[in-house]
Amino acid sequence: MKRYFIWVLILTLLAGTVSACGGGGPKTSPEDDLKTFFEAFKAKDFEKAQGYIIGEEDKPFEMPEDDDPMTKKAMDLLTAIDYEIKDVKEDGENRIVNIDLTHVDLDTAMEQIMSNVMAKAMELAMSGEDVDIEAKAEEMVLEEFDKVINDESAKITEAIPVTMVPSDGKWKIDMEKSKELEKALVPEDIGEEGEAAEVEGNEVAENVNEEANETVNEEDSE
C-alpha cells in the first residue's frame, strides 16, 4: 500500500511538471498579444507584426523596403489607426476579440486627394508659369496625404471581430477568419505595397496636362 501511494505521488508530480513546462499554451492573454500586434503595426515594425499572424501565407502585411516619398506617405496613411478592445469571447480553443478600429476612410480620402490636387495643378497649369507639373503634382499629393492623416473627420470607426488562435506559445490573429481586419488595414484598392500612392503624382500630372492642353486648344479655336 505504501509503494502504491509513492507511485501515485510520483505520477502526480510528473503530470504537474509536464503541464507547467510543456503544455504549449499561450502564456499571455489574447488582448495583450493583439495590442502587441497593433502597436507594432502602428510603429511600421511589420516584421514584428507578422509574428502575431497566421494565414494568408503568414505575410498579409509584407511591405516594401522603399525610400520613395510616395511609398512612405502611403505607409503613414495605412498605419494611422487607433483601436479599442471591447470584449473577448471563447470560441472553442480560440478567442474572438471584438474591437473598435479607427482608420482613414481610404475610398473617400483618395477621392478627396485627387480632387484637391487636380484643382490646384490645373490652376497652376493654366497660370502660364514655367513649372514641372509632374513634380509639382507629386509634391501636392504628399501635402494632401499629410492633411488627410491629421484630419480626424477623414477617419471612420468600425466594429470588427478578430479571431485569435493559440500558436507557438502566444495568441495569433487568424487572418482567414479576420477578413474585416485585413480589409481595414490593407484595402485592396490601395494595394499591399502602396503601388497606387506611388503613381498618384504621375497620373495627376498626365491628367492635368491633357486637360490643360484641351482648354488651351479650345481657347485658341475661339
For the structure shown, list the relevant keywords.
222 residues, alpha+beta, 5 strands, disordered N terminus
Entry summary:
With 222 residues, this protein is of the alpha+beta class.
Describe this structure in words.
The protein has 222 residues and is an alpha+beta fold. Helices cover 54% and strands 18% of the residues. Strands 1-5-4-3-2 form a five-stranded mixed beta sheet. The longest helix has 22 residues, at 200-221. 25% of the residues are buried.
The SS-based structural class is alpha+beta
How far is the first residue's CA from the last residue's CA? 114 Å
Tally of helical segments: 9
Proportion of helical residues: 40-55%
- How much is the average pLDDT? 77
Sequence stretches where pLDDT stays below 50 over 5 or more residues: 1-22, 191-199
From the spread of the alpha carbons, the general shape counts as: elongated
Topology:
Blueprint: H1 2-22, H2 30-42, H3 46-50, E1 53-54, H4 69-78, E2 82-91, E3 94-104, H5 106-126, H6 133-149, E4 155-167, E5 170-174, H7 179-185, H8 195-198, H9 200-221
Parallel strand pairs: 1-5
Antiparallel strand pairs: 2-3, 3-4, 4-5
